[in-house]
User: Fold this.
Amino acid sequence: MIFLKAFLVGGLICGIVQLLIDKTALTPARILVGLVVCGVVLGAFGLYEPLFRFAEEGAGVPLLGFGANMVKGVKEAVDEQGLLGVLIGPMQAAAAGITAAMLCGVAASIAAKPKDKS
Assistant:
C-alpha cells in the first residue's frame, strides 16, 4: 500500500508539471522554480509534513522536497540563532543537495565530450 500511495502522489505531482509544460508558455526553469516555491509554501504552512507522512517518497519529489527542507532549516536555525538563522538555515539544510548536484555536474562534464551546437 505504501508503494501505491507513493506512486499515486508522485505521479500526480509529475502529471501536473507535465501539464504545465504542455499547456502553458512557462519555461522549464520557471516550472522548476515554481516547484521549489510550492515546497516552501507547503512547508511554511505545515502542509508538507502530513503530505510526506501520507505518501512518503512520493511527496519527496526532489524540488518540492528541497523547498520544504529549506523552510525546515530556516525554522530550526531561527530557533537556535535568532534572525541570523534566516540566512544560515536554508544553506545548512540544502548543503548536501547542492553539493551532490555540483559533484554530479562535474562528473558529467568530465565524462562527456564537448561538441559544438552547429
